[in-house]
User: Fold this.
Amino acid sequence: MSKLFLIIGLLGASFGINAEEKITDPLEITVHRSPTCSCCSKWIAHLKEHDFKVNDVVTTEILGIKAKYAVPKNMNSCHTAIIGGYAVEGHVPAQDIKKLLNLKPKVLGISVPGMPVGTPGMEMGNKKDAFQVISFDKDAQYKVFNSYEAK
Assistant:
């Protein structure tokens, strides 16, 4: 009997979704950004390089977009993207967006608050600040979704 449970367990594990698994189909993402922001265009290029289909919405009402999608003020950055019902705030690496979509946590979104040097779209030579991707939910609970070391 225990062999049967082992086989069932192994079969179940082989059909699981790996949170880091590469998504092969283009993912549609809507990016809301200011018309004067140049780093936003660089982040959009990063997304396209990682198989995202980007709907680029240039707006002067970026604060209204952040409020509409309940992005907390302490999580703010320069642009807000929407994908799969989640808000993605700031210079979040593409692989973390894919991880979010695979895991489907009960959060409103993820953010890289501020504009850390070395994040996608904020490259400045070889310099890279340490930064964290933070998830946030409707109850203002924050958790580290991923961490990156300085280089």
Notes: The mean pLDDT is 86. The CA atoms of residues 34 and 59 lie 5 Å apart. The longest strand covers residues 27-33. The first helix runs from residue 2 to 14.
